[in-house]
Amino acid sequence: GAGVSQTPSNKVTEKGKYVELRCDPISGHTALYWYRQSLGQGPEFLIYFQGTGAADDSGLPNDRFFAVRPEGSVSTLKIQRTERGDSAVYLCASSLSLAVRETQYFGPGTRLLVL
Amino acid sequence: GNSVTQMEGPVTLSEEAFLTINCTYTATGYPSLFWYVQYPGEGLQLLLKATKADDKGSNKGFEATYRKETTSFHLEKGSVQVSDSAVYFCALLDDYKLSFGAGTTVTVRA
Fold it and tell me: How far is the alpha carbon of A72 from chain B, nearest alpha carbon, in Å?
C-alpha cells in the first residue's frame, strides 16, 4: 500500500516568507510525527499528534513553528518568518497507534532551503 | 534526557567484508531500539528493531541485540554487498518520540 507522502519534495523560499509543508500519513494510522533533519545529523523530534490534537509539541524550536491536523489525517507544518537556520529536511512519520513500542514509518521528506 | 551515540563514519568496506556499527544509548526508561537506513536518494526505512532487553532484531542479513547491561545495540552484518551502501541511524523510542544518533555513512566497494 501507499506509504507516507510529503509535499512539496523541495521548497526554496526567501528569508522572512511563510511556508507550509504537507504530510499524508499511511491510511489508518492515527499517530503522526514531525522531525527535522539538518545536514549531517540525525532527525530531531518536533511534534506529534494522536488524532487531531497535538499530544506533544515540545520539540518545536520557537513560536514561528506551528502544526495542525484538523481532520485527524493530513497534517501541515507551518513556518512563519522563515530564517536561514530553518533550512533542513522536514520529515513526517506515522504509526498505527500511539502505543509505546509502535514502529514509526517515514515519508521521503521536504527539503527546505531558505535563502 | 535520552540520547544515542553511534560510531562516526564514514566507513568504507570491500564487498563480503564484515560490518559492525556501534551504538550506545542513554535513557531514563525502558526504550525500544531501532536501526533505520537511508539509501542514496531515498527516505528513512526501518531496518530492524528490538523492544526489550536481550531481544535480537534481524533483517536483510543485519542483526542487532538489545543489551541492557551495556546499553548498546550494535549493528552487524557478516558479508556486505555494494547495495548496502547507505547511511545507518540508530534510534531509541521513549515516550513516543524517537531520538536518533548522528548517522554512519557506509560505502561498500566492489
Answer: 18
Best residue in B30, B32, B35, B44 for a mutation probing chain A (most A CBs within 10 Å): B44
Beta strands in chain A (DSSP E): 5-7, 10-13, 19-24, 31-37, 44-50, 53-56, 65-68, 75-79, 88-95, 105-106, 110-114
Q: Give A102's DSSP letter.
A: P
**What distance, in Å, lies between the first and last C-alpha atoms of chain A?**
37
Q: Which residue of A has its CA nearest to B52?
A: A101
Question: In A, which residues are within 8 Å of B93 by CB distance?
Answer: 100-101, 104
Chain B positions touching A33 (Cβ under 8 A) are 97-98
Closest-CA residue of chain A to B89: A42
- Is residue A47 within 8 Å of residue A59, measured between CB atoms? yes
Q: Which residues pair with A91 in a beta bridge?
A: A35
Tens digit of pLDDT at every position of chain B (110 positions): 889 999 888 999 999 999 999 999 999 878 999 999 999 888 899 999 999 999 999 999 999 999 999 999 999 999 999 999 999 999 999 888 999 999 999 999 99
The closest alpha carbon to A92, from A41, A45, A42, belongs to A45
Q: C-alpha dihedral over B56, B31, B2, A102, to 10 degrees?
A: 100
- Picking from B32, B96, B99, the nearest residue to A98 by CB comes out as B96
Beta-strand relationship, B104-109 and B11-14: parallel
